[in-house]
DNA sequence: ATGCCGGGTGGAACCCGA
């Protein structure tokens, strides 16, 4: 079973590329981020024609996530639980479902807050969102079942994950607090699928539209799939679909696909 | 990268992304 994550930077602006990729690759399950539309504007029928069950957690203009599955889905959750004292969260950044394939696997799609600029409410929101994810993930791990938390984490985990580290020192994606929270999440017992299956430096998943970042390969690795031990044990390979960044009207992120022996 | 690009909104100029 192949599970994909892709920040598409507007599903409707990207529809031609996205549908072509799904036709060619036909992942069993995919999570999309930054769909940038409400549920009613999501191209649900187009994905249904390709054989997908569609779960959308949309929002006008910003954010928005979706989960697509060729198998039936159960136990759908939209939105990350709040912690005590948290204010309501209006931002659509979390979707979760159990995929009822040959063997069940729980798949979570996240669009973790960017957090820039530092020293603002946005950075505080990023860190508080990561605390919420940490607590919820701990609960999911306790099921001791195959679990994949995939998405745009907006965290550069290590110096090997960025072409030009100096340029990112003042950025929320590369702060010690952000990297520490990602490491703490991983240390609950997750395996970073790319690091487990490949691990070579330069496995970038994002290149800025500006300043020739793509032709100069000034990328960062921020789209990750974290695997529970039961999922890590059956990981076969991980593929970063770099070619998508070279298409007409590309997203600034490319798809990442993990194959599990399910 | 101070926003050089790109998307959305709304119908110009501004917000947001990473």
Automatic annotation (TrEMBL):
Residues 4-253 form the Endonuclease/exonuclease/phosphatase domain. The gene is xth. NCBIfam families: exoDNase_III (TIGR00195), xth (TIGR00633). It comes from the Bacteria. Keywords: Hydrolase, Magnesium, Metal-binding. The keyword Transit peptide does not apply. GO terms for molecular function: double-stranded DNA 3'-5' DNA exonuclease activity. SUPFAM superfamilies: DNase I-like. InterPro entries: AP_endonuc_1 (IPR004808), AP_endonuclease_F1_CS (IPR020848), Endo/exonu/phosph_ase_sf (IPR036691), Endo/exonuclease/phosphatase (IPR005135), ExoIII-like (IPR037493). The keyword Hydrolase applies. It comes from Caulobacter hibisci. Its cofactor is Mn(2+); Mg(2+). Belongs to the DNA repair enzymes AP/ExoA family. Pfam families: Exo_endo_phos. This is Exodeoxyribonuclease III. Its EC number is 3.1.11.2.
């Amino acid at each position: 079973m192949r599970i994909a994550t892709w920040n598409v930077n507007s599903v409707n602006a990207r529809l031609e590329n996205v549908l072509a990729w799904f036709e060619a690759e036909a992942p069993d399950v995919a999570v999309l981020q930054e769909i940038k539309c409400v549920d009613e504007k999501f191209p649900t029928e187009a994905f249904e024609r390709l054989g997908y069950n569609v779960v959308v957690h949309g929002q006008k203009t910003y954010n928005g996530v979706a989960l697509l599955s060729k198998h039936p889905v159960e136990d759908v959750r939209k939105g990350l639980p709040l912690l005590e004292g948290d204010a309501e969260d209006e931002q659509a950044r979390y979707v979760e479902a159990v995929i009822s394939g040959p063997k069940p696997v729980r798949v979570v799609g996240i669009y973790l807050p960017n957090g820039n600029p530092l020293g603002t409410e946005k950075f505080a929101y990023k860190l508080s969102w990561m605390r919420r994810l940490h607590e919820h993930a701990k609960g999911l791990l306790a099921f001791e079942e195959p679990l994949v938390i995939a998405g745009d984490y907006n965290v550069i985990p290590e110096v090997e994950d960025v072409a030009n580290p100096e340029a990112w020192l003042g950025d929320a994606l590369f702060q010690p607090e952000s990297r520490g929270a990602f490491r703490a999440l991983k240390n609950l017992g997750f395996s970073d699928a790319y690091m487990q299956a490949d691990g070579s430096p330069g496995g970038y998943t994002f290149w800025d539209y500006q300043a020739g970042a793509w032709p100069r390969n000034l990328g960062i690795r921020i789209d990750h799939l974290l695997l529970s031990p039961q999922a890590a044990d059956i990981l076969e390979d991980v593929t970063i679909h770099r070619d998508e960044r070279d298409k007409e009207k590309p997203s600034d992120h490319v798809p990442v696909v993990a194959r599990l022996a399910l």
